[in-house]
């Protein structure tokens, strides 16, 4: 790269010109959650072998990542996203959905560490229910 181009990039990058918007950041974080959650789902549904240590690591990853998207819902970040206005107008309800979700992810993680497939099935279903419940209330149609 020519030095002048390199300098230009350095300047623009430092100013955050190429940084993600909060909406782009949270969607990436949700997609990360989806990846862990789906690969755990194939095991829960019996389509993939249950390897307790691998599964426990995935549950720990899900737990570590579960809260991340919710740090990226600043007021005024609805544009060009599926976020509904209710996220900000009914923020207590939105926070309650988050708290229930995080609690259920903890329960799933505990079941995975205990290597208890019966408990894993139940708690996995409860987490899935939480994803759906929040999406039904707070995620609008795809744009
Ligand atoms: C407390 C609310 C809440 C919970 C819980 C939640 N989501 Fe979402 N999710 C949202 C909202 C709101 C959006 C839209 C974000 C945007 O477009 O800015 C979203 C977007 C997404 C996206 C981005 C792509 C798309 O379809 O818009 C994926 C993937 C996703 N969620 C997966 C999940 C999965 C999997 C779970 C459960 C493991 C989950 N979410 C739990 C609220 C939630």
TrEMBL record:
Signal peptide from the UniProt entry: 1-19
GO biological process: electron transport chain
Pfam families: Cytochrom_C_2
PROSITE patterns: CYTCII
Binding site for heme c: 131, 134-135
UniProt KW keywords: Electron transport, Heme, Iron, Metal-binding, Signal, Transport
GO molecular function: electron transfer activity; heme binding; iron ion binding
PTM characteristics: Binds 1 heme group per subunit.
Keyword Aminoacyl-tRNA synthetase appears in the UniProt entry: no
GO cellular component: periplasmic space
Protein name per Swiss-Prot or TrEMBL: Cytochrome c
Species this protein is from: Craterilacuibacter sinensis
């Amino acid at each position: 790269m020519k030095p002048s181009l390199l300098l230009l990039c350095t300047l623009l990058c430092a100013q955050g010109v190429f940084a993600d918007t909060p909406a782009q950041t949270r969607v990436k974080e949700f997609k990360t959650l989806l990846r862990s959650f789906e690969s755990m789902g194939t095991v829960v549904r019996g389509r993939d072998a249950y390897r307790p240590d691998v599964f426990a690591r995935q549950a720990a990853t899900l737990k570590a990542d579960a809260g991340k998207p919710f740090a990226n819902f600043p007021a005024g970040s609805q544009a060009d996203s599926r976020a509904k206005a209710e996220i900000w107008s009914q923020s207590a309800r939105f926070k309650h959905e988050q708290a229930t979700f995080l609690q259920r992810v903890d329960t799933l993680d505990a079941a995975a560490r205990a290597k208890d497939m019966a408990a894993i099935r139940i708690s996995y279903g409860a987490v899935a229910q939480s994803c759906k419940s929040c999406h039904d209330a707070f995620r609008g149609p795809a744009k």
